[in-house]
Model the fold of this input.
Amino acid sequence: MTLLANDLKLDVTPLSGAIGAEIRGVDLRDPLDDATIRAIRDVWLDRKVVFFPGQDLDPDQHLRFAAQFGEPTEGHPVIPGIDSHPEVFEIDYTASRELYASYGDISTRYRGIHWHTDVTFVARPPMGSILRAVVVPPSGGDTLFSNQQAAFEGLSPALQAFLSTLTAVHDGQAQFKGVFDRVGEGKWEGATLSKLEPVEHPVVRTHPETGAKVLFVNPGFTSHIKGLERPESDALLAFLYEHSVQPEYTVRYHWQQGTIGFWDNRATQHAVAGDFGEQHRVIQRVTLRGDAPV
Ligand SMILES: [Fe+2]
Done:
C-alpha cells in the first residue's frame, strides 16, 4: 500500500496481520523532513516494527537516523559500544558465543537469542531500538517479533483485569552478570553502574503514545511477579510467555545486508532464530531513551 502524508509518499507493505511493515521510498542517509518523520512514526506505532530494506548506512548515518526519533542512549548498560561511536553497539554472534561462553552467561546456550524485550532490567527501559544488519548469514538468522498489545487484547477480560493489578520484578543479572563482571562497570542515563539492581514494572503498561494496554513481561529479564507464591508466579509467567508469542501475534523477518529494523520496545518482544549454524551474523544497534512504564 502507499501511505500519503502531506505530499509525501511512503511505500508501506504490512508483513503479517498483527505486526511489522516494510517501508520503501525513503533514503535514510539524508536528514528527514518533519512530515516524513511523522509518517514513519505513525506506521511504526501502528505496526510496532518497521524495516527499511536497501539502505546502506554507516555508523554516523545510523546514529543520525535514530536521533530523529528520540534520544540515543549510551547503547547498552553493560555491552560497550564500538570504538568510534559509543552509542552504537555491535553483536558478532560468532565471536560472542566464544566470548560469552567463557563468562558462563545463559545466553550462550543458544545460537540465537530467546524471546525478550530490550533492557527491561532498568527503571526506564528503552523506547525503541534501531538495528542495522551488518553481516547477514546466507541462510537463517531471522528475527521474530511479537505484538504485546495484541497479546494483551487476546486475553479474557477477567485475566486482563487481574494482570493489570500486578507488578513484576525485572533483573538483568542472569543474562549479563558474566559480561558485567568482565567489563567492570556499565553506563546508563549518564550514571556509572557498579552492579545491576532488580527493578519493578507493571505487568501491564499503558503505552505513552497510543494509550493502549500492553503486556510487559518477558522471559529474558522478568524474574517473578510480586505478591504471588513462586510456583504461582512461575506458572503464570510461563503461560503469558507461551501466549505472547503465538504465531498470530508475530512476524518473522529475514534480513538483507544493510536493512534497518526499528521496533517499539514498549510494545514488542523479539527473538533471534538460532538456525544459522556457524555462518557469520553481525548486527549493530542504536537504542533510544524510554520512560518509566506506568
Ligand atoms: Fe534484543
Notes: The helical segments are 34-47, 59-67, 93-101, 148-153, 157-163, 173-183, 230-244. Residues 116, 118, 270 surround fe (ii) ion (CB under 6 Å). The longest helix spans residues 230-244. The mean pLDDT is 91.
